[in-house]
Amino acid sequence: MARSLLRGTGLIDFLMRESSFACVKAEDDGGDEDEHFDDASNGRTPCSPRKWIREFSALANVVASRCARILLLSVEELQRQFNDEIPEFAKASDSYARNLLEYCCLRALGVLTSVTDCLSDKDFRQLTFDMMLAWEAPGVADKPIIKVGSGRSVGEQAFVRLGPAIIGVADPVTVHSQFALLTATSDGRLQFTIYAKYLAKVNRIMESVKNQSFSSHFLKFRSMKCETLVEFEGTVKTPPVLQHTGVSIWPGRMTLTDHALYFEPIGVGSYDNPLKFDFSDDSHHTVKPELTGPWGARLFDRGILCKSSASPEPLIFEFPEIMGHSRRDYWLAIIRELVCVHQLIRKYQMEDVDKVEALSRALLGIVRLQATRELVHGLPFKFESLLTFLTCEHLHGGDLILKAIAKNFSSRKKRVNGRILQRSPFSAISANSVSSNPATSTNPSCVVGTVIPVGEFLIGDLTPLEKAVLQSRGNAKLAELAQSTIASVKMGGIDTNLAVMKELSLPFIHAWEWIRELQSWNDPLKTITFLLICSYILLKNYHGYVIPVGLICFSGSLLWIRQDQGKNAGDVNVLAPSPNAMEQLFNLQQALFDLENNLRMGNISLLKVRAILFSRVPQVTNQVIVSLVIVACFLAVMPFRFLLLLVLWETFTRYTYIREESTELLFRRAWEWWNRVPVVSVQLLKIRESKKRI
Question: Which residues cross the membrane (predicted)?
């Protein structure tokens, strides 16, 4: 076998000649599992004399056998290595089968993905799909999920767990969005036909990019940075791209690499010297949508503005399209993705292999976006979520994801639960698959010579990157819930909003009613108790502790509400207003009338204060001055707490027979003074008739 591999025979072609693959092929062709695995109780299969793993289901045993043949090991040896290398918590009885299957699959994928054309092999697609199927039902008692009319399909958890380990399939950051787009028309389950088409398109795009990278058109853009071709537009098969410079418009051809954006205006018989927008330098770059039109008019939303702090003049490009602006949106997204990845490279000062891996991650995201666009025959909804670094820029907690990615790049070795894991070569191999840079594809430091057992993945646990992604997704769901709550409150109609405001103000209304009840002496025991407590606080000079105690009580109430969230979810039950148009009109008229009265009373009060301040009525102003002087002297002689006690007592006894004539007279005189103040300032608001006549 080793001799055949050295001669150049494909690894997958060699393995397909093995008996275990023939057995699974018979099963995939429509045979019943029970016909092939009825001898499972005896520990042997009809196709292989090897012993089965008794914790595995039939399909999981077949997948494990195939993985063992790929690794040139027996199933028993693979299980023994798992028991020796993996920590104890990952070997619990309830998760032993799934973790062992993950171990087998990840190690086998580490070998298979080293074959550069693995995505073009149909048997590789079937094998990886069977791995996901077996992951969903790895145990003996587990039953595969089969929906009527759809056959065998893969769920989200299996795709999220194993998809990022397969070259070109998904990224840990965008794997959830990738699965949602692939299963948009299949009821949330990934079918093999869609999965195979998706991998075939990814492989075709990779091969197309590599072939275009050696064309004469792209070779002239090569620089000391060894750039990699990403996308080009404006050739014979596609409409040209327009550059706007003032009122001038120049058609041309646009080329995007992983380091810069080039635009070649169409000249006489050939293209002129290209304009370069380099987003790999240390400048600050801005890329945003722009309105364009003829002669500088801002009419069409089909343009992109590229601005750098190193250049004072921005570059404006237009992507003509008959309907919509999807062409512009696609280019805007992929340019922003490359700008974001270079920002990450500069922030964490990545060099050499780390920089290559970061760029390859961005390039693979763009390749997956192109494959998905071809699969759904158009730009999918929320397509930006397929681009890793652009997603992190807009995701809640995206900075934590970027930090985890950078830490994953920079750490050659790391210790997790007492076991040393080296960095996986998957990302470097990914760069080789889409890169045209000879220095990248042949550099031995980019590809590790030995196969990493589990790569960047932890058996039975989540990596820091996966934890950051889950935390960010949870924060995003909370933010969406908050936005939906706000959107539900933004309802049309004054009557509806008044009903919502009344329902939300019920706690304050109940508090005010409780104070009025204490003040009215309907329950003398409560009122006397309240007055005694307040009097004791004022006499003992404890009023300084009222605010801290109130804050502590408020915090305790918040904790109590938090513990009781299951019973009280905080829902607002609003009584819908009457749909009768005449009644709504009457309510609106009454509300406007009350608002007008309140505004009128407020204006009168302000005008009275203005009259007192400017001595429009000197008698009343003199009385106010004398009253203020008396109150100031009274405060200077009597301690402040006794005055508060007096005001408190008067406030709660004004509706009873227990009244002091002095305080009653004081309040009565003050009210009479206030009513005697004429609104003389109204004269200032009147327009003089004499001036009007002139």
Answer: 624-649
Please tell me the distance from the alpha carbon of residue 394 to that of residue 390, in angstroms, as a whole number: 7
Q: What is the mean pLDDT of residues 213-226?
A: 71
Instruction: Please give the helix or strand (H or E) that residue 130 lies within, else none.
Output: helix 122-136
Report the DSSP beta bridge partners of residue 416. Answer: 419
DSSP 3-state of 661: helix
Find, among 605, 606, 610, 632, the residue nearest to 621 by Cα: 610
With tokens 């009097």, the residue in question is 535
- DSSP annotation of 286: E
* 621-674 pLDDT tens trace: 777 787 777 767 766 655 555 656 666 666 665 544 444 444 455 556 666 666
Tell me if residue 368 falls in helix, strand or coil.
Answer: helix
3-state SS, residue 397: coil
627 DSSP assignment: H
Assign residue 194 a region (left: φ > 0; alpha: ψ between -120 and 50; beta: otherwise).
Answer: alpha
Q: Of how many residues is the chain composed? A: 694
Report the C-alpha gap between 467 and 462 in whole angstroms. 6
Q: For residue 21, count other CB atoms closer than 10 A to its CB.
A: 20
Give residue-wise pLDDT tens across range 69-114.
999 999 999 999 998 888 888 888 888 999 999 999 999 998 888 7
Query: 404: exposed, middle or buried (C-beta count within 10 Å: 0-12, 13-18, 19+)?
Result: buried
**Element containing residue 478 per DSSP (H, E):** helix 464-489
pLDDT digits (tens, 9 = 90+) for 460-508: 888 888 999 998 888 888 777 767 666 655 555 656 666 777 777 888 8
Report which of 144, 76, 138, 63 is spatially closest to residue 105, judged by C-alpha positions: 63
Distance CA 291, CA 270 (A): 29
Q: How far apart are CA 309 and CA 285, in angstroms?
A: 7
Asked if residue 318 lies in contact with residue 297, where contact means CB atoms within 8 angstroms, the answer is no
Among residues 138, 144, 141, the alpha carbon closest in space to that of 67 is found at 138
Whether 59 contacts 20, CB under 8 Å: no
Spatial contact of 221 and 231, defined as CB atoms under 8 Å apart:
no
Task: Give the per-residue pLDDT at 104.
Answer: 92
Residues 15 and 70: their CA atoms lie apart, in Å, by 7
- 160 band by pLDDT with thresholds 50, 70 and 90: very high
Helix (H) and strand (E) counts for the chain?
29, 13
Question: Contact at 8 Å (CB) between 645 and 574?
Answer: no
> Which residues pair with residue 251 across a beta bridge?
242
- Type of residue numbered 467: K
Question: How much is the pTM?
Answer: 0.68
Confidence of residue 554 (pLDDT cuts 50, 70, 90): confident
Task: Label residue 385 by pLDDT band (50, 70, 90).
Answer: very high
Taking each helix axis from N to C end, the angle separating 192-213 and 352-375, rounded to the nearest 10 degrees, works out to 120
Domains belonging to the chain, first-starting first, are 2-144 (no CATH), 207-478 (2.30.29.30), 496-577 (no CATH), 585-685 (no CATH)
b/e sequence 213-227, b meaning 16+ C-beta within 10 Å: beeeebeebeeeebb
Task: Please name the residues in contact with 289: beta carbons below 8 A apart, sequence gap of 6 or more.
Answer: 301, 303, 304, 305, 328, 332
Tokens of 528: 């006397």
Report the pLDDT value the prediction gives residue 683, as an integer from 0 to 100: 44
User: Do 265 and 250 form a contact (C-beta atoms < 8 A)?
Assistant: yes
Query: Mean per-residue pLDDT for 605-610?
Result: 78
Q: How confident is the model at residue 437 (pLDDT cuts 50, 70, 90)?
A: very low
**What pLDDT, on a 0 to 100 scale, did the predictor assign at position 444?**
30
Residue 26 has pLDDT above 80, yes or no: no
